[in-house]
Amino acid sequence: MSLIKTSNSSAKPTAVQSDLDKIKLMIIKYIKVDYACPPNIQELRKLCRNVDSTELCALILRLTRGYVRDTLRLQVPNQTQLLTYSCFHFAAFQQQVEMLYVMLESLSDGQKVKLLTKLALSGNISVSPMSLLLGTEMSISKVVELVSTVEDAQWKTKLLSQSLSIASSIAIGAGKAVEALLKERTIESKYEFLCVVNKLCRIAGHSCPTHIAATTGNADVFPKLLTALTVKEIMSVLSFRSPQSLDTVLHVASANRHSNVVHSIVNSLRLENVCDLMKLKNKGMNTVLHLAAVSGDVKLFESFRLKELIGTPVIEELLLQPGCQNGKSVLQIAEDYGNSFTLKYCAQLLEPHQSRQPECMCQT
Questions:
Q1: Could you tell me the CA-to-CA distances from 42 to 45, 47, 60, 89, 288 in Å, in that order?
Q2: What's the whole-model pTM score?
């Protein structure tokens, strides 16, 4: 009896290993033919269900184009910048969603997240399968479906937020992405969802969806966003600060001279809310107007609805109050940078204030 048991127990790993070997051969073939011929889906599904999920996940991650070329010494298409791409990356890039489903369905939540977020180099840019999948507006719904295979609500929210960051960064209709992703039932707090700091997608030092949209000039995100949230949620999202720079979304838009983003945000708010946002300072003690003064972009200044504040103490505070690390005002920064058009525009805004100055000086 003991001999029979030994024989059976040793035979089982051989059968499992055989299935894993078959998957390995299918993936190698897929890589060798430059991903033009995906594996037979039904056969791949059957094999994936028969193998250990940990071994399957490790195999998918290990079999990159570089591994096939260098370790297995097999010829692969000559694209050296894509050597760290796994078969999962290429299936995502080619929109082979069914193949992705098959490889994911037998894995645990942690393994699914690992595959979906695995970074690979494409030239100097790190990309994940999710970012490669988001190649068209239609693929946003595909990403939502893939992420929905993850059962853990917290992981699902993070993955969806990262998807929105990616959509915002590559300008593929992020307004539609906002609509699609905000409808996802697992999102309990839209504020947390929109302000998740993502390790997966980081553009110019910014890593939450709204800041990335502001970095890339994706103004169409914000009307969709602002109509989907309450006033309290809107102000929470717009006043959210990047952990390192303490920039708000308006700081990011101003620093990148995206007047279209500023216009889109500011014209959706009440003027008093706009003033509150304009008074916020980043780590360098700059308001959004300090950054606008550096740029010298009058159109950017006009986007802040400053003309509506002429004659009020607020315009004086915004333009004349010391700020930045050198303690200079917006007006002084514009002068330092030789931005004559900005100086002229600011002077027009301050005319009522300047007309009162002589009287004040006489009193002193």
A1: 5, 9, 18, 20, 56
A2: 0.62
